[in-house]
Amino acid sequence: MTTYDEWPLKKLKEELRRRRARVSGRKKDLIDRLVAYDRMCLTGQEESKREYQMLRPDDKLYKDVAGSVIKTSQEFVDQFLLPLGTSLNKLAMDMYKDRFIRFIRFCKTESFIFVRAQCRAKMRRAVTYTIDIKLEQDGYFLESQCECKAGEGPSAHCKHVRACMLAILDCSNGNKMVLETTCTAELQSFHRPKKIHYGSPIKTANVPSRSNNSKLIFNPIPEQFNETPSAVYSRVANASINFAANTSANPAILQLFPPANLRAVYSDHDYNKLSPEDQFLESENITAINATEMQKVKTATMGQNTNKIWYSERCKRITSSNFGKICKMKKADPGKAAKELQSVKQLNTKPIRHGQRYEFKAVREYEKISGVTVQKTGLWVDASRPYLAASPDGIVSVDKILEVKCPYSSKEQIISPVTVPYLEYDNNGQLKLKKNHDYMYQVQGAMHITKTKKCDFAVFTLKDIKIISITYDIVMVEEMLKKLDDFFVKHFRRVYLERYLYHESY
Ligand SMILES: [Zn+2]
């Protein structure tokens, strides 16, 4: 027998072409094919003797069979096979059921249906034969041919042709054809172990690992630089910090490492529309606030100095009681003033205790005199400058707030500019609040923030009560806002970021 193994690929292909056989596949497939042809004595000479070649459409016009696109019947099959002395016997059935047919394609022309299939040889599965069958539109079998020795057309009835007819019948009956399954047609089964492990489970520590466990923490420094003092230091620091972060433990060694430079961290993240600082301030409702949040703050801070949230919300902002101090501030130390504003300090001096004690009584007294009901309220945040806030002592009407003062030093006295230094007489001999006093800044600021135009300023002593009507002064407020904006941008903002974003020590 010819030793095809020694033939170069080119020669193998030439020989296959000479025999009008397929030349596709790997070298081994070509050799197998030639050997199979030899075995069946399909030498070139014999092959060329084949006179019949079915006229059929171009390969490109064939389509995959989907659904029952070919209609035929057992009757038509019998009409074709019985005169040739054969039938769809067990041999053909076994071949079909054992998935020897690789694929079936079809092509419908105006008057015929052409079926083209590929079937593996019974003994050498590497060898495949191509089968062509021609039917009429109604499913009547006209012609057939097969590449095998017995498959000469136009009425080939070899086992391959008959297996193919079984497939066509299945298709016609709407059944799924039994074809060779490829690995891609199956569900994936990688997760199914090939061998089941019946021993006891392996401990994680003993699972063989490709990498050395000591290198679990990735260190990009080349090994020769690993033992320099700074490399050792950073390795120990990283290991300690990672350990603390992963276990939420607080090992004493952490005391040795300075905190991260948050300013550097945040300056690295400059790709957003807003800087990290501005984002933080917005999220804190200090530079931006919506109506819902404003209302939330107002409700949550009801009760003012008896409410913890009132203190924390106040610390984030410049409150109206400090407006005067800030606006009148000389170049002393605005940073220090900003720090003071932000510290939660609950002053507990006698005047403050006195004020807190009598405020309620003063409001009752005011209600009695003016014949109104005063509504309690919480912290009001300014809508356009959320870093400004005010806590009026009460809401009298939609357009009027109440501010109550209970001066401690004159608690037993009648109210006059002598006993209460922030008051003075106007040209008509009426008591009024001094324009330049901090209380005026407070009241004007509170009116601006609560969007009211009037304020009743009530001074209360145990012997006397005076109510002074103050109206909104837009000129003064605008002057004041300019200075407050300036203070916020230059000092308050910086101090707040240092404290709450960068966590710098205070
Ligand atoms: Zn055949």
Describe the structure.
- This protein is an alpha+beta fold and 506 residues long.
- Among the domains are: 32 residues, no CATH class; 111 residues, no CATH class; 207 residues, Lambda Exonuclease, Chain A (Alpha-Beta Complex), CATH 3.90.320.10.
- The protein is built from 16 helices and 14 strands.
- It has a five-stranded antiparallel β-sheet with strand order 1-2-3-4-5. It has a four-stranded mixed β-sheet with strand order 9-10-13-14.
- Strand 3 and strand 4 form a beta hairpin.
- Helix 1 runs parallel beside helix 2 and helix 5 packs across helix 6.
- The radius of gyration is 48 Å and the shape is elongated.
- The protein starts with 8 loop residues before the first helix and ends in a 6-residue tail after the last helix.
- 26% of the residues are buried.
- The structure holds zinc ion (ZN).
- One of its GO terms (molecular function) is zinc ion binding.
- Keywords: Metal-binding, Zinc, Zinc-finger.
Structural class: alpha+beta
Give a quick account of the main beta sheet: strands, pairing sense, barrel closure. 5 strands, antiparallel
CATH architecture of the domain at 291-497: Alpha-Beta Complex
Unreliable spans: 44-48, 211-216
Strand count: 14
Domain SWIM-type: 129-169
Keywords: Metal-binding, Zinc, Zinc-finger
GO biological process, one term: DNA repair
InterPro entries: NF-kappa-B_Signaling_Reg, PDDEXK-like_dom_sf, Restrct_endonuc-II-like, SAP_dom, SAP_dom_sf, YqaJ_viral_recombinase, Znf_SWIM
